[in-house]
């Protein structure tokens, strides 16, 4: 049975760090440490930042979900702005932003998005290393 942690944060920049902390805590509770923790936490930070920055729905909540199933991790970030879909952006070297999805694409096994009935969800998948200790009693 997969282990899942899900939480919601207000759509505000100051709560991005809360999302990072909660993701890192969930991974630690599952016994996942090291580089994968850093990669997943950074990816979550980028996806949550995008949701916070681009969602045009007032007073929205951003939902973050992390699911561990055997050696696979699924990170999902949802917001209620179904019409603003994520797009990779070629940033100029002097631009301060616009590289979040490119970073997620480089770090994750795969990423994408889907439209749900009332939200859009941007997701990324990650694989635990073969020699990683996979928790059995979650």
List keywords for this structure.
single chain; about 140 residues; alpha+beta; Heat Shock Protein 90; 3 helices; 5 strands; about 30% strand; globular
Question: What is the assigned CATH homologous superfamily?
Answer: Histidine kinase-like ATPase, C-terminal domain
Rounded radius of gyration (Å)? 15 Å
- Outline the biggest β-sheet: 5 strands, antiparallel
Tally of individual domains: 1
Helix content: 25-40%
Number of strands: 5
Mean pLDDT: 89
Determine the strand fraction and express it as a percent band. Answer: 25-35%
Assembly classification: single chain
Number of continuous helical runs: 3
Q: Could you say which structural class the secondary elements and strand pairing correspond to?
A: alpha+beta
Question: If you had to describe this structure to a student in words, what would you say it looks like?
Answer:
The protein has 138 residues and is α+β, with helices and mostly antiparallel strands. It has one domain: Heat Shock Protein 90, CATH 3.30.565.10. Helix content is 30%, strand content 28%. The protein contains three helices and five strands, in the order E-H-H-E-E-H-E-E. Strands 1-2-3-5-4 form a five-stranded antiparallel β-sheet, with helices on one face. The protein is globular, with a radius of gyration of 15 Å.
């Amino acid at each position: 049975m997969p282990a899942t942690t899900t939480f919601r944060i207000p759509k505000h920049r100051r709560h991005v760090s809360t999302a990072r902390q909660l993701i890192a805590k969930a991974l630690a509770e599952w016994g996942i440490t090291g580089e994968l923790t850093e990669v997943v936490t950074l990816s979550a930070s980028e996806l949550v930042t995008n949701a916070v920055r681009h969602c045009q729905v007032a007073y929205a909540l951003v939902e973050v979900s992390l699911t561990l199933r055997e050696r696979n991790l699924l990170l999902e970030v949802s917001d209620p702005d179904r019409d603003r879909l994520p797009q990779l952006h070629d940033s100029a070297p002097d631009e301060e932003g616009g590289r979040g999805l490119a970073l997620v694409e480089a770090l994750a096994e795969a990423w994408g998005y889907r439209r749900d009935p009332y939200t859009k969800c941007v997701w990324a998948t990650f694989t635990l290393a073969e020699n990683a200790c996979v928790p059995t009693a979650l």
